[in-house]
Specification:
The protein is an alpha+beta fold and 181 residues long. It folds into two domains: 1-30; 32-141, Immunoglobulin-like (Sandwich). Helices cover 33% and strands 37% of the residues. It has helices spanning 2-29, 150-180, and strands at 34-42, 45-47, 51-60, 66-75, 81-83, 88-92, 97-105, 112-120, 133-141. Strands 2, 4, 5, 6, 8 and 9 form a six-stranded mixed sheet that branches. Strand 4 (66-75) and strand 5 (81-83) form a beta hairpin. The protein starts with a helix and ends with a helix. Calcium ion binds next to strand 1.
């Protein structure tokens, strides 16, 4: 009887440990985790109408091959979220990473500082989604027009003056003509 009890008390923890090891193995094999490693704007500050390239590095930190979308968006001053370019769909093997570039045409954007967010859209079964988004900032400035060079300004005045004098001379000449005839 004691032998039986001893045997059971040894077998039960053994079976249980095998079971828990099995559970750990199953979850490890099914880990799905993608992440945004970096988001880099180039340049970080531009005048409106200029192009900003947003480079996003994404990584598959899980154990399975993944297919997912990567999107970049900014918050406008009105707090409305707008996408930059089109989302890019990629396939990454486990442990692999990839660099993607999104072109931001700033033509229809107002000046100001914008928070630009890159997001790797979570894959089915993904638990750690905190590393799926990363933010950066980009400053858009109003275009500064270069002042007119002094030489050009003087030349312009001279031309205008010549035209004015010539016009006046012609006017005077024409006015005098009828009095002569
Ligand atoms: Ca993740």
């Amino acid at each position: 009887m004691r032998k039986k009890l001893l045997l059971i008390s040894l077998i039960i923890p053994f079976i249980f440990s095998m079971f828990s090891v099995g559970i750990i193995k199953i979850t490890a094999a099914e880990t799905h985790d993608i992440a945004v490693l970096s988001v880099t704007p180039d340049p970080t500050s531009v005048e409106l109408n200029e192009l900003v390239n947003i480079t996003v590095v994404v990584e598959n930190q899980g154990m399975a091959r993944e297919r997912f979308d990567v999107t970049v968006y900014y918050n406008s001053t009105l707090n409305a979220t707008k996408t930059i370019g089109n989302p890019i769909t990629i396939i990454l093997e486990a442990g692999a990473n990839k660099s993607l570039t999104f072109a931001w045409n700033t033509t229809i954007v107002n000046p100001g500082m914008y928070v630009v967010t890159a997001e790797a859209i979570a894959v089915p079964g993904e638990i750690d989604i905190e590393d799926n988004t990363l933010e950066t900032t980009v400053t858009l400035k109003r275009a500064e027009y270069a002042p007119l060079p002094l030489e050009l300004f003087i030349a312009l005045i001279v031309v205008v003056a010549i035209i004015a004098v010539a016009t006046y001379a012609i006017y005077v000449k024409r006015r005098k003509k009828p009095t002569i005839t």
